[in-house]
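Our example pasted here:


***
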Amino acid sequence: MNDARTPEGPLVCDRCGTTADTLPLTWTCSVENGRRCYYCEDCARANIRAIEGRLDSSWW
């Protein structure tokens, strides 16, 4: 049974396009305009202040 918080299929980083078969623990999830966006470890680290400040990804 799939949890609603667990995405199905391969994931793609919404910033750089990196892919992963399953959701790695190091990736970050953000909800923007009602849509879940996933960011790889490198993108999340580079933009952590903006993510924690809840800025839309279009600002960073």
In short: The two ends are 36 Å apart (CA to CA).
